[in-house]
Amino acid sequence: MYSEEYKDVMTKLRGFLEQKTYTEEALALTEKALELLAAHYTTWHYRFNIVKAIKRDLFEELDWCELVALENEKNYQIWHHRQLIIEEILKDEELASKFDFHREYPILSEMLQEDSKNHHVWSYRKWFVERFSLHEAIEELQFVESMLDADLRNNSAWTHRFYLKFGLEDWQKNVDSEIEYAKSKIEICPQNPSSWNYLKGIYRKSNRDIRELREFCTPLADVKAKEIKSSFALELMAEIEKAAGDKDLAAAYYTQLAEVYDPIRANYWNYVKNML
């Protein structure tokens, strides 16, 4: 089922691998192999070893990596390879002095403009932030806010924001402001699970009492007035009443979820109710 070209390239590649050939010819062959199958992990591993052995210009390797990434949006190995190359640069004092982490922003922005929920790129961006201690970098904060302004339902952007704000040692300073930020976004789009998960995540992280959120949730899930703007608010109201010790009221909320506001998950809500 393979093309003749693919079979020829891979046969030659296997021969080079067995002979542990680290030359410019072998490097060119890996490039050809990755053009045919960019997700071939063994080829990426071999290429990295060749790059080190022949002392290829590591900045040129990063440039080449960007071209491959633009043509293969869903590829993970490219970003792993890029991490390895950057780590090699940082090991060398002279090369490290020439490396500017800002060079990563254009390719990351372009990739996420193409696909704002590209998991591989977001994972790389998390590594990038951690490696260069960029949790409070203005570029990161501005970027993640722009992504959320463009799409409040972008769970990847919410996850990245949480990492920026709560991946710090002194993350406690961000609790109050981030609670207000999450609330402001919920008010714009009440039926958005990402912003609710973000809000609840802050409360779990900081061990805050979720009963503080009763006043905020009530207008969004007023069962008496039969005005339910958000099933997620109703779910949180059930959790609040459970925390307050009112199991009957919590059960009533779960029943509403199961029967009216989120029946597709009725089995789950009935299970949660029975666990009370």
Automatic annotation (TrEMBL):
<keyword id="KW-0808">Transferase</keyword>
<keyword id="KW-0637">Prenyltransferase</keyword>
<dbReference type="InterPro" id="IPR002088">
    <property type="entry name" value="Prenyl_trans_a"/>
</dbReference>
<dbReference type="GO" id="GO:0005953">
    <property type="term" value="C:CAAX-protein geranylgeranyltransferase complex"/>
</dbReference>
<dbReference type="GO" id="GO:0005965">
    <property type="term" value="C:protein farnesyltransferase complex"/>
</dbReference>
<dbReference type="GO" id="GO:0004660">
    <property type="term" value="F:protein farnesyltransferase activity"/>
</dbReference>
<keyword id="KW-0460">Magnesium</keyword>
<comment type="similarity">
    <text>Belongs to the protein prenyltransferase subunit alpha family.</text>
</comment>
<keyword id="KW-0677">Repeat</keyword>
<protein>
    <recommendedName>
        <fullName>Protein farnesyltransferase/geranylgeranyltransferase type-1 subunit alpha</fullName>
        <ecNumber>2.5.1.58</ecNumber>
        <ecNumber>2.5.1.59</ecNumber>
    </recommendedName>
</protein>
<dbReference type="GO" id="GO:0004662">
    <property type="term" value="F:CAAX-protein geranylgeranyltransferase activity"/>
</dbReference>
<dbReference type="Pfam" id="PF01239">
    <property type="entry name" value="PPTA"/>
</dbReference>
